[in-house]
Structure formats: C-alpha cells, structure tokens
Amino acid sequence: MKVLVTGGAGYIGSHTCIELIKNGYEIVVVDNFVNSHPKAVERVKKITGVDFPFYDMDLLDAPALDNVCKAHKIDCIVHFAGLKAVGESVAKPLEYYENNLCSTMNLLKTMADYDIRHMVFSSSATVYSGDNPMPLTEDSNRGCINPYGWTKYMCEQIISDWVAAKENASAVLLRYFNPIGAHESGLIGDDPAGIPNNLLPYITQAAAGKLPELPVTGADYDTPDGTGIRDYLHVTDLAAGHVAAIKFAEKNKNAHAFNLGTGKGVSVFEMIHAFEKVNGVKVPYRVVDRRPGDQPVSFADPSKATKLLNWQTEKSLEEALGDMWRWQTNNPNGYTG
Ligand code: NAD
Ligand code: UFG
Fold this sequence. Notes:
seven-stranded parallel sheet, binds nicotinamide-adenine-dinucleotide, binds uridine-5'-diphosphate-4-deoxy-4-fluoro-alpha-D-galactose, 17% strand
C-alpha cells in the first residue's frame, strides 16, 4: 500500500514516516519546509535504511500535486501539512485559512481525480471548546478561540462532507493531545523556529541554557498545584496511531474522529520536576501571568481509539523526557547545527 505523507519533514510527520516504513508501507513524502528542514527527511532515510520519493512542494500548488499523484499510485493520504502556531494565526489569519484549508481542498480534489479513497487528517484537541467536563470525549462540545483552531474545525467538516459524498471513501480525523519526546535514536525531534511556544521544547532549551528560564504561564489556576494540566503523549506512540488509523480507514466508510492521548493529566510543575529527575538537570523557571486563551485543564478520554483502533500509548512520560533531552543534547541547534 502506498501512502502520500504531507508535511512529512515536520515533527510528527517525520516520526510517522518511520512507523509507516516499519509497518511495510511504501511512502511518498511532500513538504515545502516552511516549518522544517531537509535534514529531517535524510535522517528518516538513515534511521530506516529505506529510500523514498520526496517532493519539495507547496500543497497550494495544485498542478505540482497533480504531478505527484500521476507519478505514484497513491492509496491513502496522511495529511500533516499545516501551519500550527496559535499566536501567529491570530496575527495572520488569512495566511492560516489559506494554507490549511486550501491545501486540504487541493488534496481532496486530487483524491477524487486519482481515486484515492482514504485520508488520515491531523486534527487537534483544540477543536474542543472550553466548557467541557474532563476527560474530553469525541462527543464533547466543539468550538475554537483562534484561527488555527478554526482551520482544524473547518478541515474536519470539509473532509467529512467530501467523504460522505464519495462512494467508498473514508477519513480518520485524529485529534492529538500534546505530543512530546523524540525518536530514541536522537536523530529526529521537535525543532521549533525561534522561541518555542510549547512547554516541552521550552523546558528543554531552558535546561540546556539556550533560554534563561521557563515562564510558567499561570500558577493560579483551580488545579492541585495551580498550574495548567495537559495530556502529554510520546510522539512515537502518536505516530503508531496513524498506522492504526490507516487500517481502520481501509475497513470503515465515512469520517471518524478519535482522540489520541494518554487519558492522564500532568501539570506544568509536575513536568518540570519529572524532567529534572529523569535527566539530572535543573530547569530554571519563573511564574508569570496566564497565557491568554489557555484552558486550565485538558485531557483525553482515549477509549474510543483503544476500542476501535486497537491503539493505546505504550511509552512512559519518563521515556519521553529522556528522549527529548537526548535529541536536545545531540542537536543543540536542532537540524541547523
Ligand atoms: P510541523 O510544523 O513540524 O509539521 C508540519 C509540516 O507541514 C512542516 O514540515 C511544514 O513545512 C509543512 N507544511 C506546512 N504547510 C505546507 C504546505 N502548504 N505545503 C507543504 N508543506 C507544508 O508540525 P507538527 O507538530 O509535526 O504537526 C503536524 C500536524 O499536526 C499539523 O497539522 C498540526 O497542526 C497538527 N497538530 C500538532 C500538534 C502539536 O502539538 N505538535 C497538536 C495537534 C495537532
Ligand atoms: N506553558 C508554560 N510555559 C510556556 C508554554 C506553556 O507554562 O512557555 C504551559 C501552558 O500554560 C499549558 C501547558 O504549559 O498549561 C502546555 O502548553 P503548550 O503550549 O505546550 O500546549 P497547549 O495544550 O496549550 O497547546 C498545544 C498546541 C496547540 C494544540 C494543543 C492541543 O500548541 O496547537 O496543544 O493539541 F491545539
């Protein structure tokens, strides 16, 4: 089976390419490196020992996408490509709507042209509104507070409508919670441009002395230690979820949403202390004001994925934090070092 991986040079995409190859899939990868580096692709080839076609291509370029699908008989698309910085999406909404929606629509049109029947889409826990009891199930209320979130919400709708209209088509909408960690080889990992937005890359860079201290964005939430609680899963477990999703898509028509998370919430302070213990380093931090728009608590009920995808997380928080630190120490400047 041949899988087109969009955004395969990115953080989650590169880890998923490895899982796909390990599970016997042939892959074709496209990425325009707007938020990634060609070295990630080289390193996936090095880790797996497998060469695969790669196209440096913008998904907004419909004729280029057409050429890729003409050249390869694609059976399924795993669609990671997208812009993902929440703050940037507020400042540049049109860029986000254009990139994330139009790339998805170009892919769906190409799927129709080349009879590609299955899509696995990178959605996010951000599609859930802030008024839900925890844990979040796939039926929890949805609603977003920033353009990035709306692009995920809208893409889910567009994909679902398209699949409903097309005979034999199916889609799996994977709502990721918080991916962390890196491949155990230390060769690929998260390489955010500039100052990280997310907690774990920030912790890692503060521990390495690249950043002076971690700002703990709020310690006055109504949580046991006052800091925000999230559901952090190892990126390799998340990658394995895509293999499970492809198998499900082959057997089930229509669009189906799944939460991918551990089901457990971890606070910012718990994360700092676990990181220090696992890696034997100090994480300098300072409590600052809350980040606008942050939920106090968010964690998944992943039981639908366990039941229907036969998927659950395998790796511990400690493994993820050790892998994260290995990636940082082996690659102090990410892929550009
Ligand atoms: P990433 O930025 O590392 O990967 C996305 C990749 O898509 C990048 O390599 C980028 O260069 C590429 N890309 C973007 N627009 C493109 C275009 N028009 N044409 C071709 N390539 C393009 O991000 P990631 O963390 O690996 O996330 C992958 C997907 O998962 C994204 O859609 C993201 O929104 C979603 N997601 C991520 C998280 C997270 O915490 N990392 C959480 C929920 C959902
Ligand atoms: N936090 C800090 N300091 C920082 C960054 C974050 O204390 O410098 C705190 C936040 O307040 C929050 C927790 O750490 O309590 C996690 O924050 P992240 O930014 O790592 O993760 P979020 O859950 O806020 O958001 C991420 C992605 C979203 C995605 C969401 C769900 O950034 O795009 O996970 O998948 F939608």
